[in-house]
Specification:
CATH architecture of the largest domain: Orthogonal Bundle
Shape: globular
Radius of gyration: 28 Å
Structural class: alpha/beta
Low-confidence stretches: 1-10
Number of domains: 3
Number of strands: 7
CATH topology of the largest domain: Helix Hairpins
Order of helices and strands: EEEHEHEHHHHHHHHHHHEEHHHH
Strand order of the largest sheet: 3-2-1-4-5
Length: 411
Amino acid sequence: MNAIDKHPSENPKNFVATIGLDWADQKHDVWIRPREGKPEHQIIEHTPEALHEWVAKLRTRFPQGQIALALETSRGAVVYALMVYEFIVLYPINPKALCSYREAFKVSGAKDDLTDSRLVEDMLSKNLEQLRPLKPQDEHTRTLAGLTEKRRQLVNHRTGAVNECHAELKCYYPLARNILGDLTTTTAAEFLLKWPDLASLKKAGTAKLRKFFYGQNCRSEERMRERELLLEKAQPLTEDRAVIVPCQLKVKALAALIRDLNQAIEEMDTLIEKEMDQHQDAFIFRSFPAAGPVLGPRVLVAFGSDRDRFGSAQEVAQFYGIAPVKKASGKTQVIGMRYRCPKFGKQSFHEHAACVVKNEPWASEYYQMLRAKGKGHHMAIRATSFKLIRIYFRCWKSRTKYDGALYLESL
């Protein structure tokens, strides 16, 4: 979800040098082409000190003017380190585009770091007017981008741990799944850490079971009675220690992981809310339907804070793979989905639209109309998202809140 300026603001003739950087874990190969002079190859060690020392020497060598630097990524340690220097204009190169460019000269597929740095620089210097420089968003937007994406990664890790926990409990302790129901909660994790097998739960008895759930603010008498009856009637699935002991240890480890992940996710939710409170565009995105504390910030990050980033709603939909891709050659025409796009941004729009169709009347009607025509669920959701992007784009550009009544009137 990098922020890329739509229209290059730099004249190629204004750069005092163009640089191609091929980054790696141990070293970085650099190909420098000064505006006046011969190109040269340099190697930078993969340490912060070496990188900043190289930049300092670069500024000493070119005391005036800006330097265009291209690299085969739009994020990562090197990008974050170079973004602080105003005289360096970064140009992220799509790895797929560079691969095709390399194949034009190396049909055999041979490659090395030096060759890649030269090709990156060559691609930059010959296509400066077409390439888009990296333009960082404001600090709040970038912080939200990091928090929302990392939060989703933690949620995915928790889902994996919960699925593993379900599989282990099936083997020796199915009662726990019936008593707890949802294993994603911290209550479920604490329960499994306290009573990781049926024997320990039977020994504790119904009185301690009731006390535990009361302590977790689970006070439904009907549900509590169901749990007590389940415990009273429970019989062990197996008494084989060879099965119980390994599964029990793994369940305890998974429960501790789920508990810690829940704590981390809650901390991230708090930070996301604080960042949203300080963001200048928060009032716009909070006004969108179904834009709660999770999806609202994610849609905000997808649009960003730079109003020049996208020229139209169509560009937003195309960039995130919501709009279809058309391929035409002669009389042949194929329309399909764009797969090479920012996956997290596309996921944000898709999931948001799926929530909107449950809450917004016009969106629900549109979705049902598409389903009645035989369209699949996900295709109908993408079509709804395409419409939502058009509305949100106008709100974002004009800095106005969403008004569902106004859209209904226009329909």
